[in-house]
Amino acid sequence: MPIGIRRNFLPISIICLVCSSTLGVKTNAAVTNGADIYCFMRNGGNTHEPSWQAAYQFIKSKKQGLFKTSPKQAASMIVEEVVQDPIKYEDCIAYLGDLYTGDSTSIEINDEDQLKDKAKSSNDGSEKSPKGISIDRYSY
C-alpha cells in the first residue's frame, strides 16, 4: 500500500472506530424522571407541594436548551409518564389530579361517606376566586 493512502486511511479508520464504539453502546443505567420523584415522595407520605417542587426542579434541570419547561408542561410530562406505565406507577395514579388542583389527596380515602363529606366541603363556595380573575396555581 502506498504511503499516501495509508495516511488517508488512518484518520478515517480512527473516526470509524470511535463512532462505532460510542453509537453501539446501550446503557442499562436506571433513568429517573419527574414521575418517579413525584410518586416516590407522595408514596413516602409527603404532601403535594414538596413532592411537586422536587419533581419540577428535577424536570427543569434536565431540560437542555434556551427555553425552560413551564410548570404546566412539567405536570403534563408527569401525567404522560404515569399513563405510559400504569403498572409501575399504580400507587401514584390517585395523586395525578393534585398536579392540577394543588390539593393533597390522601390515598386512604376509601369510604363512600368520607368521599361525600369531602365533596360537600369542596362545594360550599368559600374558596371561589373573585369574578373575572383567573388564579393560576402554576405562576411561580
TrEMBL record:
<feature type="region of interest" description="Disordered">
    <location>
        <begin position="111"/>
        <end position="140"/>
    </location>
</feature>
<protein>
    <submittedName>
        <fullName>Putative Bacterial type II secretion system pr</fullName>
    </submittedName>
</protein>
<dbReference type="Pfam" id="PF20191">
    <property type="entry name" value="DUF6554"/>
</dbReference>
<feature type="compositionally biased region" description="Basic and acidic residues">
    <location>
        <begin position="113"/>
        <end position="130"/>
    </location>
</feature>
<dbReference type="InterPro" id="IPR046684">
    <property type="entry name" value="DUF6554"/>
</dbReference>
